Amino acid sequence: MGIAPPSGRDRYLEIADRRLAAILAAEDVAEQHGMSAHTRTTCYVHRCWMHQCISDPLHVLVVTGHRWCRRCDRTVDVEVDETSPGSVELYCDGCGVPPDTVANREVLFACRTSLVAMLGGEASTLYVVPDSWNPDWSD
Question: Using the 8-state DSSP alphabet, how is residue 83 labeled?
Fold first, then answer.
């Protein structure tokens, strides 16, 4: 019999940044309970803050328009400055117009929130995740 893959908090044991690991695990749980993957501040694939890997081609979603310019049908570039207070900007080299769509606003929001979380200093997590499910919480 094979060994089951790690789940929950155990999935991210190798990550030195324990705040990042906790938020990755919390967002995994939140996604299972209905949070949109497009609002994550972390990336479970790259195991980092979203703003750190958003430039990866994996994060271009033509169908939904995430990191995509529909005006000129090309990938939108991302510029991230991690220097406090930090900034994230999207731009299109094709038409020169910042892509202002719902999908690209989600990218900006997730990356800006990710950047704030990373620079968050002493705050332990963005989310509180219960250790067990209580059916009374669904009210």
Answer: S
What does the alpha-carbon distance between residue 70 and residue 112 come to, in Å, rounded to a whole number? 22
Per cent of the chain over pLDDT 70 is 80
User: Does the pLDDT at position 129 exceed 70?
Assistant: no
Tokens found for residue 109: 């929001």
Q: Per DSSP, what are the bridge partners of residue 80?
A: 88
Cβ 76 vs Cβ 64: under 8 Å: no
> The tokens of 112 are what?
């800006």
| Mean pLDDT computed over 87-111 | 94
Say if residues 19 and 124 touch (Cβ distance below 8 Å).
Answer: yes
Per-residue burial over 86-99, b = 16 or more CB atoms within 10 Å of its CB, e = otherwise: bebebebeeeeeeb
Q: Copy the structure tokens of residue 70.
A: 């529909």
How many CB atoms within 10 Å of residue 106?
17
pLDDT at 125: 46
